[in-house]
Amino acid sequence: MTLRFRLLALVCGALSLPAYADGADEAKGLWMAPEGDAVIQFAPCAETASALCGTIVWDKDAGTPADTCGVRIAQLARFEKDAWRDGWVYDPRDDRKYKGVVRAKGNELRIRAFVGVEVLGQTEQLKRVERLPDAPQCKR
């Protein structure tokens, strides 16, 4: 086997692996927003258990007029190939919904919001957290 053939086989094998996500359940859990000002919980949607929903469960502005506790920021219908797809993401900063894709791997979750096609979007990277910060508390 020539070196060129081995390199080609290695590249083809690497390209056949999922790009980022480990599996459908990897996105479930608590995730800290990039600015550290909110925690989003991703879990099955109450009304459609096969879908994934993201809800703000901790907000540094809890109890103030800027409070976003309880706001659903994502709803994605299905997991396919490497990501949760076919749904929307909501940005409370600009009060707009976008098409969305969520990918998770280990302690990182990436939310991609876009209009039209995915390549023309913007990505936010969140970090997994084990528990909510102590204060302030969202009212349930």
Automatic annotation (TrEMBL):
UniProt keywords, alphabetically: Signal
InterPro entries xrefs: DUF2147 (IPR019223)
Name of a matching Pfam family: DUF2147
Protein name according to UniProt: DUF2147 domain-containing protein
Signal peptide location: 1-21
Domain DUF2147: 29-128
Lineage: Bacteria, Pseudomonadati, Pseudomonadota, Betaproteobacteria, Burkholderiales
